């Protein structure tokens, strides 16, 4: 009898699993990848490798906070190389339609605070192969999603932009782990349908119950370049104050990044 | 006679010879389908040539590609090119080029208006299509084996896809493409113009300063695609009506176009020349059956030589495409001598075999030597350092040898088999007018008169020659060594027109790269860093923080002693260890202030009052600090909210601004800064660019510095600031860190890495893109010299390694090599030929004499080039070897016959009338046939062919005159030395 109940439970769970719609999948994946905890921090080491194999390294601390309605705020504080020391990026990501992100930067050596027009989110993030959208996440509303394959362990979702003129890709597919809902590999196809870019989560660890990508690699197949991000000191629910994510903290960085 | 064995055999077994010739032709001809073409002047230099290796390295290092330059010009519209319609077209064209792909049928396809569109790339002219087929030139070939486009889409330079950094609304900074979307209104179009004109990287390069033209730079994976890419652009813009003119240029296109048209020339000029020679032979000998022989000799030699070249795996290069043209006159000349002689002596024997033996017996030696000298002339090209010239020289030498062999065997065999006896009846000799009915021609009369003149007025002739030589020598001193592949096209060729138009509108379509890097890249050692830090620390801290400063200096000194012991200490170690110490020091000095600052920073500005602020501070920092702070805040207590918060932080910053940790990071950034993050090095580049701007022929230079200054300006721009304040930021940021932070913005533009075309990723090397308005080697050389001179007078802060690359510069290098190489090969073959002549005539005097006509000819030709102002370029250089080979022939024949006839008639005076009959006739026929035979080349659309055609004619004419006048006059003057041993009689033909 117990077995039967267990079996029934399993069946219903499985059923629920199978019935997961593509929107639910991408929502869960988006949650898992970008919204773990109410806030979080990490130290990032970024290695920009060109086709000849030579690398440039950047280190920064990253703060993230979820705010109302799925919006988020990011604070990026550079530690290395020495000439970028104390440089800051501040991003307010908006998900509501018609609302644009806000971005600021602080260039300490120029004693300069500048607000950057939202413009294109697919520009390179500090010269790496990552684009801003990779760091902060692409709004789900910008693409049409289609579940094209389900394997034992993964969902494969194809995402087609609703405004193809705004982006350089024609579509991208994402392989999402069934157990953690973390996107494992995204493959971008250009307007001619040729694969030209991949973003891959190569290492995953669990912190405070949140499965977290601790190494991700982006490859530009056109240029032969790649960028590897390694995440350490990951912490969630650290109780960040929202006013950290304001211009005032550009010049005087918060303790959460300097320590 | 031994030497006749070959001919005797041919006369006896003519079929075997004919068969052998057919086999040779088929064998070598069968190699033709394997042909591959190479029209890249870069290959004038060997693969491992240093400058080429460097050029390739620079291209790889900076991700530089060869460009097809598409210039779009609108002269008519009031806004020039910046009108809605034209910009829309340019945007559409850019997107079409980016979308280039191979469709299911394997044909090129672009996306036009959202739909796949496969433009018809085939030429509308059936003739061109046929040529393309013959030469395997597939216009649809725009993809590699994997189907990847020949166009490097992400590197296209077009307003639609180049970054622009500009001020946006609300004091924001916008980073977007120059033409994010095609404009829909005049205002939008003019905004694009203003943005472009305000960007030093684009003005003069992407957009013409006059606002009438835009240039797209389309990078291609291989230069060999350029013709097809140009063709694609032409087809895509075919339907552009109105005032938009499209011009396509760029060195790869020019080269590729040259290559394609060169094939056309090979297919037309050479056969046309062949036809002209045939007609002239027919005019002189009037017997088709007879003159087919020299034509066949020419054809077989050309086919065999080209077959050998292709079979050996060499590409047909610009040089080797001319093999046919060079070989034909030589091959024909040999057999014309035989024919002429056969023609003139047949009546005496009335038997083909006997006549042949007589003729060959008589001509064997001179013909062997004329061939050997020609071979020497061309083979000497093998000593030049230019691979295609070596290949050319050796193959022509092979062809000449084969032509000689064929003349000795095939011509007799042919005469035996195919010339019917009957057709030879009525053939007569000029001097036996009683026997023959033919009247002497005008040429005969003229030659007779010439002979008399040369004999009687020899002093006058020699004096005149001296004058000509002297004038020519002056001309030679005026020769300008120069080449420019664009000038290989005629004035009205579309490539030349495009070149002219675009260089008129833009800063220049010719590219050279000047790269700079420190001679020694060595990060300073720990000891050096500490030394630098020590001085900077004293300057910064000793006044305001004397105590802490002392401690800090002590720490530095300790670190110094520690690291001096370690020879190869990790350079960052000295820094890492110090940071911890500095943090402690900061805590000691600024700890309380920073604690206050942090506390205030985290306060919620909403509803903040001084009372709340004061309350929050209780227990933070220390008593004294709080007291000092409260004192300073006295007058600001009435402030509220964010204003209060900011004021409080400003006061704290005044105290806490001096941080030893920050200082260390700064010092580390300064000390470890690569060469081109250092403001003083960038300032040097700035000065160099300012100098280059004033150098004639340089239209513009672009460097990472231009991008840096522009970005610094835009970053610091404040709408409320005065123009003076804003303009002051159009400059190099003051510290290495500041430079680095601006550069980082440029790294993260929309078009990633475009900065790295101009600077390496480690910022240790820079690349100046120099645009020249002229591709003349002399102009490029002048630029190199000027830069060298300036840099010698203005040494850089750090010793620099200077390197040049780019196709325009490469041309200079191979040209220099060619000139020197040609000079050497000319001199060495001159010596070889002189020795051969001395051996042939067994007399140094005769040997020297034989060299006179060719020396005069070469002097005259090059003197003429100098006087006319024609550049000494590649085709002209090659002609020297041809001159050597051809003009000595006349002299050999003339001297050989002079000696023989003088012997026969007992004296030079008696021999002269005879000399100016049959021997002079043969020489004259040859000269006329070759010079007139090559006039079709004058109508070629390619200058090298025209040059060769013109100079072949001139060489023939001058060596003809040189031989008949000067040689005859010299013999007259020197006869007592030349003929002193002539006592015995006896002619060879009786042997």
From TrEMBL, chain A:
<dbReference type="Pfam" id="PF17131">
    <property type="entry name" value="LolA_like"/>
</dbReference>
<feature type="signal peptide">
    <location>
        <begin position="1"/>
        <end position="18"/>
    </location>
</feature>
<dbReference type="InterPro" id="IPR033399">
    <property type="entry name" value="TP_0789-like"/>
</dbReference>
<protein>
    <recommendedName>
        <fullName>Uncharacterized protein TP-0789 domain-containing protein</fullName>
    </recommendedName>
</protein>
<feature type="domain" description="Uncharacterized protein TP-0789">
    <location>
        <begin position="70"/>
        <end position="252"/>
    </location>
</feature>
<keyword id="KW-0732">Signal</keyword>
TrEMBL record, chain B:
<dbReference type="InterPro" id="IPR050545">
    <property type="entry name" value="Mycobact_MmpL"/>
</dbReference>
<keyword id="KW-0812">Transmembrane</keyword>
<dbReference type="InterPro" id="IPR000731">
    <property type="entry name" value="SSD"/>
</dbReference>
<keyword id="KW-1133">Transmembrane helix</keyword>
<keyword id="KW-0472">Membrane</keyword>
<feature type="transmembrane region" description="Helical">
    <location>
        <begin position="948"/>
        <end position="971"/>
    </location>
</feature>
<protein>
    <submittedName>
        <fullName>Acyltrehalose exporter MmpL10</fullName>
    </submittedName>
</protein>
<feature type="transmembrane region" description="Helical">
    <location>
        <begin position="874"/>
        <end position="895"/>
    </location>
</feature>
<feature type="transmembrane region" description="Helical">
    <location>
        <begin position="262"/>
        <end position="284"/>
    </location>
</feature>
<feature type="transmembrane region" description="Helical">
    <location>
        <begin position="318"/>
        <end position="343"/>
    </location>
</feature>
<feature type="transmembrane region" description="Helical">
    <location>
        <begin position="923"/>
        <end position="942"/>
    </location>
</feature>
<feature type="transmembrane region" description="Helical">
    <location>
        <begin position="392"/>
        <end position="415"/>
    </location>
</feature>
<keyword id="KW-1003">Cell membrane</keyword>
<comment type="similarity">
    <text>Belongs to the resistance-nodulation-cell division (RND) (TC 2.A.6) family. MmpL subfamily.</text>
</comment>
<feature type="transmembrane region" description="Helical">
    <location>
        <begin position="818"/>
        <end position="841"/>
    </location>
</feature>
<feature type="transmembrane region" description="Helical">
    <location>
        <begin position="363"/>
        <end position="386"/>
    </location>
</feature>
<feature type="domain" description="SSD">
    <location>
        <begin position="287"/>
        <end position="417"/>
    </location>
</feature>
<dbReference type="GO" id="GO:0005886">
    <property type="term" value="C:plasma membrane"/>
</dbReference>
<dbReference type="Pfam" id="PF03176">
    <property type="entry name" value="MMPL"/>
</dbReference>
<feature type="transmembrane region" description="Helical">
    <location>
        <begin position="460"/>
        <end position="477"/>
    </location>
</feature>
<dbReference type="InterPro" id="IPR004869">
    <property type="entry name" value="MMPL_dom"/>
</dbReference>
<feature type="transmembrane region" description="Helical">
    <location>
        <begin position="291"/>
        <end position="312"/>
    </location>
</feature>
């Amino acid at each position: 009898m117990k077995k039967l109940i267990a079996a029934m439970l399993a069946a219903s769970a499985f059923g629920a699993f199978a019935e997961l719609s593509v929107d639910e999948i991408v929502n869960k994946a988006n949650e898992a990848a970008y919204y773990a905890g109410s806030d979080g921090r990490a130290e990032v080491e970024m290695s920009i490798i060109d086709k000849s194999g030579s690398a440039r390294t950047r280190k920064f601390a990253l703060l993230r906070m979820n705010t109302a309605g799925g919006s988020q705020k990011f604070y990026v504080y550079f530690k290395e190389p020495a000439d970028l020391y104390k440089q800051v990026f501040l991003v307010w990501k908006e998900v509501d339609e018609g609302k644009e992100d806000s971005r600021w930067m602080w260039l300490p050596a120029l004693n300069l605070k500048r607000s950057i027009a939202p413009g294109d989110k697919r520009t390179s993030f500090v010269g790496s192969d990552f684009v801003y959208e990779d760091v902060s996440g692409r709004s789900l509303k910008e693409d049409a999603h289609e579940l094209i394959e389900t394997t034992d362990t993964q969902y494969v979702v194809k995402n087609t932009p609703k405004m193809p003129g705004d982006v350089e890709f024609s579509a991208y597919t994402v392989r999402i782990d069934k157990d953690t809902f973390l996107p494992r590999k995204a493959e971008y196809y250009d307007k001619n349908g040729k694969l030209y870019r991949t973003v891959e989560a190569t290492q995953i660890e669990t912190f405070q119950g949140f499965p977290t990508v601790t190494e991700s690699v982006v490859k530009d197949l056109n240029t032969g370049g790649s960028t590897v991000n390694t995440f350490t000191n990951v912490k969630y629910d650290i109780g960040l104050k929202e006013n950290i994510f304001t211009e005032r903290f550009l010049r005087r960085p918060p303790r959460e990044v300097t320590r | 006679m031994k030497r006749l064995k070959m001919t005797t055999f041919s006369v006896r077994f003519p079929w075997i010879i004919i068969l052998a010739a057919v086999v040779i032709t088929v064998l070598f001809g069968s190699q033709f389908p394997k042909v591959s073409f190479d029209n890249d002047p870069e290959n004038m230099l060997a693969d491992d040539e240093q400058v080429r290796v460097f050029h390739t390295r620079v291209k790889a290092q900076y991700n530089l590609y060869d460009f097809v330059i598409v210039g779009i010009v609108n002269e008519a519209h009031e806004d020039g090119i910046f009108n809605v319609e034209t910009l829309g077209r340019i945007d559409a064209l850019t997107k079409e080029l980016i979308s280039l792909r191979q469709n299911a049928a394997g044909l090129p396809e672009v996306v036009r208006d959202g739909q796949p569109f496969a433009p018809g790339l085939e030429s509308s002219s059936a003739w061109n299509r046929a040529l393309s087929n013959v030469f395997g030139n597939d216009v649809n070939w725009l993809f590699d084996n994997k189907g990847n486009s020949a166009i490097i889409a992400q590197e296209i330079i077009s307003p639609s896809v180049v970054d622009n950094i500009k001020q946006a609304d609300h004091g924001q900074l916008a980073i977007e493409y120059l033409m994010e979307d095609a404009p829909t209104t005049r205002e939008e179009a003019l905004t694009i113009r203003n943005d472009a004109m305000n960007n030093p990287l684009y003005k003069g390069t992407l957009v013409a300063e006059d606002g009438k033209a835009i240039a797209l730079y389309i990078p291609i994976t291989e230069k060999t695609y350029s013709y097809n890419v140009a063709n694609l652009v032409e087809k895509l813009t075919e339907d552009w009506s109105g005032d938009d003119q499209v011009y396509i240029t760029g060195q790869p296109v020019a080269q590729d176009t040259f290559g394609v048209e060169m094939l056309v020339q090979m297919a037309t000029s050479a056969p046309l020349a062949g036809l002209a020679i045939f007609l002239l032979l027919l005019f002189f000998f009037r017997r088709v059956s007879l003159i087919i022989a020299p034509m066949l000799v020419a054809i077989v030699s050309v086919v065999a030589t080209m077959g050998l070249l292709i079979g050996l795996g060499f590409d047909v290069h610009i040089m080797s495409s001319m093999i046919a043209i060079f070989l034909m006159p030589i091959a024909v000349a040999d057999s014309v001598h035989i024919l002429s002689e056969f023609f003139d002596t047949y009546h005496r024997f009335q038997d083909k075999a006997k006549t042949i033996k007589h003729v060959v017996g008589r001509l064997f030696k001179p013909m062997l030597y004329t061939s050997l000298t020609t071979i020497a002339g061309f083979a000497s090209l093998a000593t030049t350092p230019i691979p295609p010239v070596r290949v050319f020289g050796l193959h022509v030498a092979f062809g000449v040898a084969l032509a000689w062999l064929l003349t000795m065997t095939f011509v007799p065999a042919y005469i035996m088999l195919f010339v019917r006896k009957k057709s030879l009846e009525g053939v007569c000799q000029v001097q036996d007018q009683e026997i023959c009915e033919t009247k002497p021609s005008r040429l005969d009369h003229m030659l007779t008169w010439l002979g008399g003149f040369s004999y009687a007025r020899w002093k006058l002739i020699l004096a005149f020659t001296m004058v000509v030589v002297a004038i020519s020598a002056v001309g030679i001193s005026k020769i300008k060594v120069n080449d420019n592949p664009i000038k290989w096209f005629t004035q009205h060729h579309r490539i030349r027109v495009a070149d002219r138009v675009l260089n008129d509108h833009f800063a220049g379509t010719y590219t050279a790269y000047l790269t700079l890097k420190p001679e020694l890249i060595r990060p300073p050692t720990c000891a050096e860093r500490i030394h630098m830090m020590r001085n900077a620390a004293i300057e910064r801290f000793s006044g305001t923080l004397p105590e802490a400063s002392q401690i800090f200096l002590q720490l530095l000194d300790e670190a110094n002693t520690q690291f001096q012991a370690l020879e190869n200490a990790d350079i960052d170690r000295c820094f890492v260890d110090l940071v911890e110490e500095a943090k402690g020091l900061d805590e000691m000095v600024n700890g309380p202030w920073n604690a206050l600052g942090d506390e205030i920073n985290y306060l919620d500005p909403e509803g903040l009052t001084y009372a709340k602020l004061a309350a929050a501070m209780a227990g933070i920092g220390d008593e004294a600090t709080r007291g000092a702070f409260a004192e300073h805040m006295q007058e600001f207590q009435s402030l509220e909210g964010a204003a209060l918060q900011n004021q409080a932080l400003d006061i704290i910053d005044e105290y806490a601004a001096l941080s030893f940790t920050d200082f260390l990071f700064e010092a580390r950034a300064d000390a470890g800064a690569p060469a081109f993050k250092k403001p003083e090095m960038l300032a040097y580049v700035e000065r160099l660019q300012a100098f280059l701007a004033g150098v004639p022929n340089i239209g513009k230079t672009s460097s990472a510095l231009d991008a840096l200054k522009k970005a610094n300006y835009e970053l610091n721009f404040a709408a409320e600031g005065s123009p003076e304040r804003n303009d002051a930021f159009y400059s190099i940021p003051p510290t290495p860190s500041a430079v680095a932070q601006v550069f980082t913005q440029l790294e993260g533009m929309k078009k990633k890495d475009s900065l790295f075309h101009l600077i390496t990723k480690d910022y240790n090397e820079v690349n100046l893109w120099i645009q020249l308005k002229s591709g003349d080697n002399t102009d490029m050389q002048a630029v190199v010299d000027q830069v060298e001179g300036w840099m010698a007078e203005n040494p850089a802060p750090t010793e620099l390694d200077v390197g040049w690359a780019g196709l325009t510069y490469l041309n200079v290098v191979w040209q220099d090599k060619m000139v020197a190489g040609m000079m050497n090969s000319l001199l060495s073959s001159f010596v070889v030929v002189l020795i051969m002549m001395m051996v042939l005539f067994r007399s140094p005097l005769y040997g020297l004499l034989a060299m006179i006509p060719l020396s005069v000819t070469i002097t005259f030709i090059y003197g003429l080039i100098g006087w006319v102002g024609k550049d000494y370029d590649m085709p002209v250089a090659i002609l020297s070897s041809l001159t050597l080979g051809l003009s000595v022939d006349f002299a050999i024949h003339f001297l050989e016959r002079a000696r023989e006839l003088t012997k026969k008639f007992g004296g030079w005076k008696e021999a002269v009338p005879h000399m100016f009959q049959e021997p002079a006739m043969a020489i004259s026929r040859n000269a006329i046939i070759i010079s007139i035979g090559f006039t079709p080349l004058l109508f070629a659309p390619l200058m090298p062919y025209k040059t060769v055609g013109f100079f072949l004619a001139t060489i023939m004419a001058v060596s003809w005159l040189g031989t008949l006048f000067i040689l005859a006059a010299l013999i007259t003057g020197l006869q007592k030395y030349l003929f002193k041993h002539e006592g015995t009689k006896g002619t060879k033909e009786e042997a």
